[in-house]
Amino acid sequence: MAENAFAGQKTVVSGASGTIGSAIVKRIVDEGGTVTMIGRREEPLKKLVEELGAGKVSYSIVDVDDDDGVKAFGESLDRVDAVICTAGWTVQGPVEQVPVPDALAMFSARYFGQCRLIQATLPKFDKGGMIMMCSGVGNTSYYPYYSYGGAVAAAIEAWAHVVAGELAPRKIRINVMSPGWTVAEQPDPERAARAARIAEGNQTQNPFMASLDSPMHELIRAEEFADAVVFAARSRHYTGQVIRIDAARSVTDSPLDGHVSPMTLTYESDPTM
Ligand SMILES: NC(=O)c1ccc[n+]([C@@H]2O[C@H](COP(=O)([O-])OP(=O)(O)OC[C@H]3O[C@@H](n4cnc5c(N)ncnc54)[C@H](OP(=O)(O)O)[C@@H]3O)[C@@H](O)[C@H]2O)c1
Q1: What distance in angstroms lies between residue 75's CA and the mean position of ligand 1's atoms?
Q2: 171 CB within 6 A, ligand 1
Q3: Cα of 271 to ligand 1 centre, how many Å?
Q4: Hey, how many other C-beta atoms are within 10 angstroms of the C-beta on 6?
Q5: Which of 2, 82, 154, 217 could form a disulfide with 11 if both were Cys (CB 3.0 to 4.6 A apart)?
Q6: CA gap 229, 156 in Å, rounded
Q7: 96 alpha carbon, distance to own chain's centre
Q8: Which protein residue has the closest C-alpha to ligand 1 atom 47?
Q9: Residue 110 in contact with residue 88, Cβ under 8 Å?
Q10: CA-CA distance, 156 to 160, in Å (whole number)?
Q11: For strand 10-14 and strand 80-85, is the pairing parallel, antiparallel, or unpaired?
Q12: pTM for this one?
């Protein structure tokens, strides 16, 4: 039987109380690692400590949007073997309506937040290690009203691609996981209620919400990203890559069950185009 993927390893997970982050924290513990969890809200992190045990997980209240706070967090660590970044949020809306300051704030937390945390923890990597960033499928699939969601995902993936080459001589590997529409087995009640309110208000009139379905017509479970993290931890030469788990949403925008996209219709009616 293979050794546990995180046996004896010290890891950091940002967004640890989130849908994807909490599934990853639990899996790292199952795989023999310890986790320092990062988030802004203390209550859900405390609950995870109660559930998983203080010897396995601890937490630090860190806003990844705060340069000094992230730097101080990095300095407080003695050693780190793996950093998993999932902290982030999104903005969506028609391109002429989304205020650029809102998009900037989102980029600062979700894109630069990952860069900050990686930069602050890199001095604490000893003999190699792994980093996992988190993007999203907005750059590989069409979602109406999601220009900044697409832009931030592309920025994250491009950054990781270059940094992978830079860190390879230190045997530090960096990859990105790109989630399609992903849900938790047991969602954080506060977040679930907020998501339900948004979905209820928007489902019919918001093309973004209507576009979230995938050709498989299934929601993705957060545990699949925990599987991806374990795979990346086990594979010593897997770096600079993007793991897309999106139920074929990046393969086709069409659900493949009778629907024909407007683009196909345009082409077929005018073969000279
Ligand atoms: N779930 C999906 O369908 C999906 C699809 C595509 C992309 N994504 C992206 O993947 C990432 C993870 O998704 P998720 O579904 O797990 O999100 P989530 O459930 O909303 O959790 C986000 C986590 O990020 C933390 N966070 C947000 N801003 C932070 C900040 N400034 N500093 C520190 N922590 C912060 C939150 O904790 P606190 O509130 O305590 O700070 C929370 O734990 C996000 O960037 C999301 O946009 C998700």
Answers
A1: 24
A2: no
A3: 44
A4: 24
A5: 82
A6: 17
A7: 27
A8: 89
A9: yes
A10: 6
A11: parallel
A12: 0.91
For residue 198, what are the contacts with CB-CB under 8 A and spacing of at least 6?
A: 209
List of the chain residues with pLDDT < 70: 1, 186-188, 191-207, 209-210, 253-273
> Which sequence spans correspond to the domains of the chain?
10-264
> What gap in Å lies between CA 89 and CA 94, rounded to an integer?
17
Whole-angstrom Cα distance, residue 249 to residue 239? 23
CATH class of 10-264: alpha beta
Q: What is the pLDDT of residue 270?
A: 41
Angle made by CA atoms 146, 150, 153, in degrees to the nearest 5: 140
| DSSP helix/strand/coil, 203 | coil
What is the pLDDT, as a whole number, of residue 43?
Answer: 97
**pLDDT 10s digits, 86-135:** 999 999 889 999 999 999 999 999 999 999 999 999 999 998 999 999 99
Residue with tokens 């990095």: 74
253 lines ligand 1 (CB under 6 A): no
